[in-house]
Amino acid sequence: MNESTSSLRRTKMETIQMKRFCSPLILMLLSIPVPGIAQATQKTTPTPTPTTPQTTAPAPAPATTTAKPASPTAATGTSTVTSTTYTTSANYAGPMDAARYIIGPEDSLQVTVWKEPTLSGNFPVRPDGMISLVLVGDLPAAGLTPMALSNDITQRLKKYIQDPVVTVAVLGVNSQRIFLVGEVGKVGPVMLTPGMTPLQAIVSAGGLSQFANAKRIYILRMVAGKQQKIPFNYKQALKGENTGMTLLPGDTIVVP
Questions:
Q1: Which distant-in-sequence residues (6+ apart) come within 8 Å of 13 by Cβ?
Q2: Measuring CA to CA, which of 42, 121, 126, 226 is 20 to 30 A from 172?
Q3: SS percent in the chain: helix, strand, coil, step 5
Q4: Using CA atoms, how far apart are residues 174 and 191, in angstroms rounded to an integer?
Q5: Could you give the C-alpha distances from 82 to 46, 74, 147, in angstroms and in order?
Q6: Is the distance from CB of 85 to CB of 173 less than 8 angstroms?
Q7: In 90-191, where does DSSP find H-type helix?
Q8: 204-227 confidence digits (pLDDT tens)
Q9: Which helix (H) or strand (E) holds 167?
């Protein structure tokens, strides 16, 4: 009985010692961290979006326009008139009307007789208003239109040429001039344009100077071989009250 009791006690003691030995070991094992499973991080590389190259349409070629030369006017009847006016004056206000232009002294004319180069050429109008042509001689040109002059030359040439065709062109306008003297910006001749008034002529010459007497302006004009003095009211013209007066070739505006 005593032996069994002592063996039982001995077994309990061994069990208690075993527990005391194993408990710290278990705690130590539990305190060691268990390494986690490394998870590989997959890096996702974005798939590049295919870019379609932009094709630029070629710019359209600039349109080229070819100017067709004007066909020469066919000569019909007895004469064809082509009146061309050339001038380099800064006061030039456009081409003269060939149908209404009146030829004057010192103008330059081109007379062309079809298929007759010896009768054609450039002819200045003399101060007496005459021109000289082969076979025809002297004939008046001043006071006529280019059409009237071509008809006159045609009639005169019929004595020598069968069915002549004559063209008269005005190359230089030297007779259509007026003159300004006195207290103006620019003294001298001014190209006369159709319907030009004294006020427009004064403006073309640079206007009045600071010493000009606007109340005593007058125009000198030759009428039937006599010189006339025509007063001009500058202030009324500025107000639009004296617009009826127009200038004639050869007029002289005097600004005292």
A1: none
A2: 226
A3: 25, 20, 55
A4: 8
A5: 82, 11, 9
A6: yes
A7: 146-157
A8: 999 999 999 999 999 999 988 899
A9: strand 166-172
Distance between CA atoms of residues 146 and 216, nearest Å: 39
Type of residue found at 235 = K
| Contact assessment for residue 106 and residue 175, using Cβ atoms and an 8 Å cutoff | yes
Tokens of 43: 């890096």
Token duo for residue 215? 């109340």
CB 218 within 8 A of CB 229: yes
Q: Kindly give the pairing relationship between strand 252-255 and strand 177-182.
A: parallel
How confident is the model over 170-195, as pLDDT tens digits?
Answer: 998 888 899 999 999 999 999 888 88
Tokens, residue 38 = 């490394």
Judge contact between 183 and 256, C-beta under 8 A: yes
Report angle CA 21, 27, 28 to the nearest 5 degrees: 95
Per-residue tokens: 123:
């002819």
Q: Which of 251, 112, 88, 244 is nearest to 172 (CA)?
A: 88
Identify the structural domains of the chain with CATH numbers, from first to last.
Answer: 76-174 (3.30.1950.10), 177-255 (3.10.560.10)
Distance CA 197, CA 240 (A): 12
Rounded distance between C-alpha atoms, residue 235 and residue 199, angstroms: 10
Q: How far is residue 42 CA from its own chain's centroid?
A: 71
